[in-house]
């Protein structure tokens, strides 16, 4: 979650994670298969992309049923629920709110009735022209509270006015600006669309002999294809609309590709076992660690990671530097989304709720501590204090990304620029602020080189302030739509009949 003043909750609440992506999306067309369970497992693999809510929309050819609720995928669905959701195609979504409040009404997939049935949609990313799109809605439907709801409403409205869903999408998508990996469906067809910049990852897979199933799958990351036994076919191209039904997969282009894939996916957001643009994320992170060691060596006894996202870079740093690698911090795997609020006493324990030092490993040692990023600095400050309390002789912090200097408008919940520590302090000043003996960041060009993706094909805005799509900050804001309308009422289960 984030707070209304733009602060990242990871820096205030030790029960929360770091920089958060908008969501994870999954879609499957597979007649004769248990698509609800395939979708469940796909969402389970994408849980790291959003932990606030989860939902599945499913069709049996006659009606769409949407089931969604607040909580983790495993909290929202059980086997009895999944057994009751029968059909031949489904879409799924796990949400972290970057537009709209973290409430049931804003959970996805969203749903509206179209001309001959229903339309359900899930969205990963953030739009930057939401007010202009909302102005296109009929007066009776201008109560949308998220950019995703606006999109769903517009598609359904145009389909209801005589266009097919595919025609409506080809008409609407060229007008949509920002980051979007979309999965949507009517009663018989699965659709997938990716913004012309391809900011968020999105892939197409084939269910075949290895899984015993037959059909097609789309997902935010290749790891979700792996877990359901699907073979990766290719990335969905920027500016491409896929239509999947009994005739197979058909591709149409609604805009030319202008590739600007998110660089921060390689740093933190994506799973390490995911492949983006042909490059395994874990391999990229290990290579970044090697480059970080060459750029910023230090005389030390141990290299320890901040688990888990700092681990691959720490491995690379240790390999390149020759300094032994050690697990100096133990992570509590069960700290995450919780409905039990910590008391003030527990808050004062800070990061110990999430990490605990191995005193026998740390005591008397000079440490290189490798982490993926610094946003506001509070987490690193607490971490350094904890390591010193455990007896560390020296603490040298190494960061496997450049300083985060600018906010993201495309689906990552960073702080405002005023609260980004690197936007207001020099590296030496940050080191003093977190009480580290030394601090260093990998250079931007070194991070880019590690991805093997051309610099001009990456969105680097959070690091260099160069936004691939022009943004008017005055027209942005997490609660932009909620300021002008009430929140719609809803229930956990929604259906449509064709």
Automatic annotation (TrEMBL):
<keyword id="KW-0408">Iron</keyword>
<keyword id="KW-0411">Iron-sulfur</keyword>
<keyword id="KW-0479">Metal-binding</keyword>
<feature type="binding site">
    <location>
        <position position="372"/>
    </location>
    <ligand>
        <name>Mg(2+)</name>
    </ligand>
</feature>
<keyword id="KW-0808">Transferase</keyword>
<feature type="binding site">
    <location>
        <position position="408"/>
    </location>
    <ligand>
        <name>[4Fe-4S] cluster</name>
    </ligand>
</feature>
<keyword id="KW-0460">Magnesium</keyword>
<dbReference type="InterPro" id="IPR035584">
    <property type="entry name" value="PurF_N"/>
</dbReference>
<protein>
    <recommendedName>
        <fullName>Amidophosphoribosyltransferase</fullName>
        <ecNumber>2.4.2.14</ecNumber>
    </recommendedName>
</protein>
<dbReference type="InterPro" id="IPR017932">
    <property type="entry name" value="GATase_2_dom"/>
</dbReference>
<feature type="binding site">
    <location>
        <position position="309"/>
    </location>
    <ligand>
        <name>Mg(2+)</name>
    </ligand>
</feature>
<keyword id="KW-0315">Glutamine amidotransferase</keyword>
<dbReference type="InterPro" id="IPR029057">
    <property type="entry name" value="PRTase-like"/>
</dbReference>
<feature type="binding site">
    <location>
        <position position="459"/>
    </location>
    <ligand>
        <name>[4Fe-4S] cluster</name>
    </ligand>
</feature>
<dbReference type="InterPro" id="IPR000836">
    <property type="entry name" value="PRTase_dom"/>
</dbReference>
<feature type="binding site">
    <location>
        <position position="262"/>
    </location>
    <ligand>
        <name>[4Fe-4S] cluster</name>
    </ligand>
</feature>
<dbReference type="InterPro" id="IPR005854">
    <property type="entry name" value="PurF"/>
</dbReference>
<feature type="binding site">
    <location>
        <position position="462"/>
    </location>
    <ligand>
        <name>[4Fe-4S] cluster</name>
    </ligand>
</feature>
<comment type="pathway">
    <text>Purine metabolism; IMP biosynthesis via de novo pathway; N(1)-(5-phospho-D-ribosyl)glycinamide from 5-phospho-alpha-D-ribose 1-diphosphate: step 1/2.</text>
</comment>
<comment type="similarity">
    <text>In the C-terminal section; belongs to the purine/pyrimidine phosphoribosyltransferase family.</text>
</comment>
<feature type="binding site">
    <location>
        <position position="371"/>
    </location>
    <ligand>
        <name>Mg(2+)</name>
    </ligand>
</feature>
<dbReference type="Pfam" id="PF00156">
    <property type="entry name" value="Pribosyltran"/>
</dbReference>
<keyword id="KW-0658">Purine biosynthesis</keyword>
<dbReference type="InterPro" id="IPR029055">
    <property type="entry name" value="Ntn_hydrolases_N"/>
</dbReference>
<dbReference type="GO" id="GO:0004044">
    <property type="term" value="F:amidophosphoribosyltransferase activity"/>
</dbReference>
<feature type="active site" description="Nucleophile">
    <location>
        <position position="23"/>
    </location>
</feature>
<dbReference type="Pfam" id="PF13522">
    <property type="entry name" value="GATase_6"/>
</dbReference>
<comment type="function">
    <text>Catalyzes the formation of phosphoribosylamine from phosphoribosylpyrophosphate (PRPP) and glutamine.</text>
</comment>
<keyword id="KW-0328">Glycosyltransferase</keyword>
<keyword id="KW-0004">4Fe-4S</keyword>
<feature type="domain" description="Glutamine amidotransferase type-2">
    <location>
        <begin position="23"/>
        <end position="247"/>
    </location>
</feature>
